Amino acid sequence: MFNLLLRRLGLGVVTVWLVSVIIFAGMEVLPGDACTVVLERDAQGELLENCRKNLGLDRPPLERYIDWASGAIKGDFGVSADGTTKISTEVALRVKNTILLAAGALIVGVPLAIFLGVVAGLARDRFPDIFVSTVAIFAMTIPEFVSATILVLIFSIWLGLLPAVVLTPADAPAMAFWPDVIPVAIILVLVMVAHIMRMVRSSVIEVMASEYVQMATLKGVPYWQIVIRHALPSALLPAINVVALTVGWLLGGVVVVEMVFNYPGIGRMAVDAIKGRDLPVIQALVMLIAATYVLVNMVADLMSMLLNPRLRTLKMRSK
Amino acid sequence: MTDAAVSPTSPERASVLRRWGQVLRDVVRRPSGAIGVFLVSAHIILALISPLITPYEFSSMDSDIILAPASAEHWMGTDSLGRDIFSRVLMGGREALLVCFLAIPLTMIWGGLTGIYLGLRGGWPDEVVMRLVDAFLALPGILPLMVFVVIFGGGNEVLIPTLAFFFGIPVIRVARAATHDVVARDYVLAARARGHSRFSIMWRELLPNTFDVMMVEGAMRLSWMLLTFSSLAFLGFGTNPAIPDWGQMISEARVYMSLAPWGVLGPMIALSSLIIGVNLTADALAKTLGIDRTRKAVV
Amino acid sequence: MADPVIDIRDLSVGFTARAGHTQEVLKSVSISVKAGETLGIVGESGSGKSTLALASMGYMKPGLRKLKGDVLFDGREVFDQSLRQLEGLRGGKLGLIPQSSGQALTPTMRIGAQVQEALRLHCNLSAAECSSRAEALLNQVRLPDVPAIMKRFPHELSGGQQQRVAIAMALAGEPDALVLDEPTTGLDVTTQKQILELVQDLARERNMAMMLVSHDLGVIARCCHRVAVMYQGEIVLEGPAKDVLKKPKHPYAQQLIDAVPRIQKAKAKAKKSSPSTTEALNLEDVGICYSQPGFWEKTLGSNTPRALTVDGINISLGRGKTIGLVGESGSGKSTILKAIAGLLPAQKGKIRVGGDTLLKPSIDRRRPEELRRVQMIFQNPDDSLNPRHTVAEILAQPLQLYFGKTGRAARDRAAELLDTVRLTPAYLDRLPRQMSGGEKQRVAIARAFAAEPEIVLCDEITSALDVSVQASVLDLLADLKDQKQTSYVFVGHDLAVVQQLSDQVMVLRHGRVCEAGPVDQVYANPQSDYTKTLFDAVLEPGNA
């Protein structure tokens, strides 16, 4: 058991390291660097060489990677391409805003999704299930920018209830984002709930058809006790991993949603950086998002190992 | 359940084509499958014939009728440059369909074969590649694609291989897991015991028995790829800006949405109906083939 | 005594197969059990016996419904009772011991909690009383170290222990009747014997009525006062156990009982044992480790020597002869087969075929010609045939690989092979799912013989089949051996089946040889204590 946990931790570290290599190597292989971007058309001859010398871009890649990676571990991603802003300060502001958004979506979305999934699973193929499942298909397939547009059209333009875009600046305190954050979070919740709910539903259906639920019935256990004591613990275990994967999606999906609502989080910052070809900022953001993804999934794996009696008591011999 | 159900009176020639014909019939027999297949085929047909039936040239502007509401001449009204929205909606799906229908087979072939090979091979290549796959999966979805588009431009010759590459990575995982299920079966063990080559086992035992999973996976990936393609276009990372695209049209029309909401409606309905159609088809296909991919979740 | 506890009258159960068409699973079944009596219900798979057992508890699998008839418990119709009444009845006066407790115990609940739950539901007890009663119950089913077991999760117990826990739960409500649905399937023979003894003792103590469902006539004969034989949803024969098992008055029942292999006394078995001249297979001091080193261990070079799972195996098998490997699960008998086939490379020792050819341990390093000489048949024919290939394609594979036969030639040869396993050429174009279990196993046998092997490895090849099918498959194997002078290594857990086919036998326990020798000798006069226990535990319908 302990070995398993350790192995999982090790895997996480290896993955993060590989991510950093991929990101660095990717930026290295792709044509252009900070100097060609800043100098634009003047990027040639002596000017280019001087610029590279100033930024240390003429050093061998391995040396620069070590520099960058050791900085990144300490949370220092250097300065942006134009050399004016310290990346970590700006990123920290944006991270706070995105966390505000993601946390709000998770707090509302996860319990809602589990509740709907259990209801749909227990009422398999009857009205509540058909209704919830159909809505879920729509929610998870319609592109975020489409549902966001519909939301704005109805609630902002026609009913005038919600703000259409976020005008609060990035460095405003968390409270200032109320109520701007609501429509942004609604769109995230919609897709997230659909994914988690569908998984919980099929997990509940599978467990309710299991032999041990049949046995509990034939032991005379009342229905709701079967559901709560016998079925749900097994049915909800896999939900941990799905929630983690959804967080991963949240981090990627947030890009589009933040752009739609002009929300000053890391997603919008990333898109702006890409449009401006600000390579150091892109590197920093992609690294940050990827590391978070790895971390969240690792925590989910560790949690389900600890909660699942089969894994918790797994002896190493039975590997 | 009983042996009587498979009485030896039906000497049925097992043909792969016939089986998939039957699968298609079963898919269409489900309400969701019928709607899905109808939507997808309608979109494909419209995309093929749209240049012939558009009432106006999609790029012809008319400054007299900017942002005009729906009328007998312009069924969906006009946009901010006075172009006919209906004509542009008809043309707007062609690029997305073309790119995705070319990229999906590539995706499934490279991801599927890699995954099946690794699942059978095991050992150090498996270990190394899977770590790389884990790392690539951690990259936030759409951002690497944007980087490619910014650096190499958004032409189809860039977009198709890029989409196929990034979408193929999760497919490796799915194919590998499906292969592990099959490799554990005795018929693969029997083939190994007879001494068949790895290639022969892949071709004869693994491919036919992972094919169902791959088909469902391909259909799901197609819907996500369409979504990604239109999201890119929406964010301004699309293909040629001169060619109308639904994502791009929605993004342009949003600006004057309070004045002319019809500008977003057409492309939104077109795009959503296509993606929902693909999804419903995939869902019905999964149910028909008895593959529950929701358990394996979003990867 | 006169009133039956469970009384089923004219019960029909069915499901809607297609719109408007009802398929009956049970057809007008009438049966009853009295207090202190054990009724055995026997039948092959799909005969409806489990449906009948569950129906007696007022339960039906989803999709099934009662068409007509009554199920009375203590004189009251079960299906008319309210849900609350049923909940009181089930696990209370009417207990169930399920088929495989490994699946039937809730994996996320501790043993103690599950037993206490049963007590809490059916007896008015305080928490403390509950806990001590649970402990008493688990003691009663003869589990060791009960306080520790109560804290464990189901997967931490052995199959036999899980079954004992299920029995304890069934006893919690002090039942008047027990329904046992294949209670010992999947357990080793010695465990099976213990469990049946326990159940019988408890039934006697409490004067319970029991309804025991099983496909195993030996189990039925061991425990039951009365026996009912089911076939395709009907009870075809019912009566006192002695009458039904000794002189069945129904052709199907007769056939079923005759098909059960029985251990024969050595004298009765006059086998012409011509000493074989050439040696077909030789194993010299073979040792195998079940867990092969993984990638990380190989790379990091963990140098802790691995304990050999199986060790000290010596076999010398003549041409046209059979050696039977017997032992309980985990004894390593299948592992030896895999080592001979090369699927699990032996760590030490030598494997020779045809007297002189030394086989490399790993399959990757054996030459095709060497591979051809050793073929394997697997336990479960549902799993050993590629579901996407037709019989012709399945048989063509060894033909192409070893003899380069393709197209017409391969198809003709495949038809011949089908003929040798007594199937018509019509089967060539059939897919595995269009065949019965017995037919599939015949195809698997044909595939092995397509290679014209010298040695065929048989891994429990009849244990997934019904008894009547098993008999004909064994018959076929014996014929093929005589025709082709092939040698078999036959792994089985059924001692009678092994005896029927083998010339030599090897008894294994925990990966070591317990006893080995000619079949007649070992069966007539077992030397080791373990072999004796094993023979003791065998249940046969004749010994009722």
- Average pLDDT value of chain B? 86
Q: Give the largest interface.
A: A-B, 60 and 46 residues
Report the end-to-end length of chain B measured between terminal Cα atoms. Answer: 35 Å
User: H/E element string of chain B?
Assistant: HHHHHHHHHHH
Share in β-strands of chain B: under 5%
Report the helical percentage of chain B. Answer: over 70%
List low-pLDDT spans of chain C.
none
- Please state the overall shape of chain C, judged from the principal axes of the Cα atoms: globular
- Cα(first) to Cα(last) distance of chain C is 24 Å
Give the % helix of chain C. Answer: 25-40%
Summarize the structure in words:
The complex is a heterotrimer of chains A (319), B (299) and C (544). Chain A is mainly α. Chain A is built from 13 helices and no strands. Chain A has helices at 2-29, 34-39, 45-55, 61-73, 87-122, 127-141, 144-158, 181-208, 211-218, 223-261, 266-275, 279-307, 309-312. Chain B is mostly helical and 299 residues long. Helix content of chain B is 71%, strand content 0%. In chain B, α2 (31-53) crosses α3 (85-92) and α2 crosses α11. The model of chain B is unreliable at 1-14 and 295-299 (pLDDT under 50). Chain C is of the alpha/beta class. Chain C has a six-stranded mixed β-sheet with strand order 6-7-8-3-9-10, sandwiched between helices. Chain C has a six-stranded mixed β-sheet with strand order 16-17-18-13-19-20, with helices on both faces. In chain C, α8 (189-206) packs across α22 (529-537), α16 packs parallel to α18 (437-450) and α18 (437-450) runs parallel beside α19. Chain C is globular. The mean pLDDT of chain C is 88. Chains A and B meet through α1, α6, α7, α8 and α10 of A and α5, α6, α9, α10 and α11 of B.
Structure at a glance:
The complex is a heterotrimer of chains A (319), B (299) and C (544). Chain A is mainly α.
Task: Spell out the blueprint of helices and strands.
The complex is a heterotrimer of chains A (319), B (299) and C (544).
Chain A: H1 2-29, H2 34-39, H3 45-55, H4 61-73, H5 87-122, H6 127-141, H7 144-158, H8 181-208, H9 211-218, H10 223-261, H11 266-275, H12 279-307, H13 309-312
Helix pairs in contact in A: 1-12, 5-6, 5-8, 5-10, 6-8, 7-8, 7-10, 8-10, 9-10, 10-11, 10-12, 11-12
Chain B: H1 16-29, H2 31-53, H3 85-92, H4 94-121, H5 123-138, H6 142-152, H7 156-183, H8 186-194, H9 198-234, H10 246-254, H11 262-289
Helix pairs in contact in B: 1-2, 1-11, 2-3, 2-11, 3-11, 4-7, 4-9, 5-7, 6-7, 7-9, 8-9, 9-10, 9-11, 10-11
Chain C: E1 4-18, E2 21-34, E3 38-42, H1 49-55, E4 65-73, E5 76-77, H2 83-89, E6 94-97, H3 101-104, H4 111-122, H5 127-140, H6 146-150, H7 159-171, E7 177-181, H8 189-206, E8 209-214, H9 217-223, E9 226-231, E10 234-240, H10 241-246, H11 251-259, E11 279-288, H12 295-300, E12 310-318, E13 322-326, H13 333-341, E14 348-353, E15 357-359, H14 368-373, E16 374-377, H15 381-384, H16 391-403, H17 407-420, H18 437-450, E17 455-459, H19 467-484, E18 487-492, H20 495-501, E19 504-509, E20 512-518, H21 519-524, H22 529-537
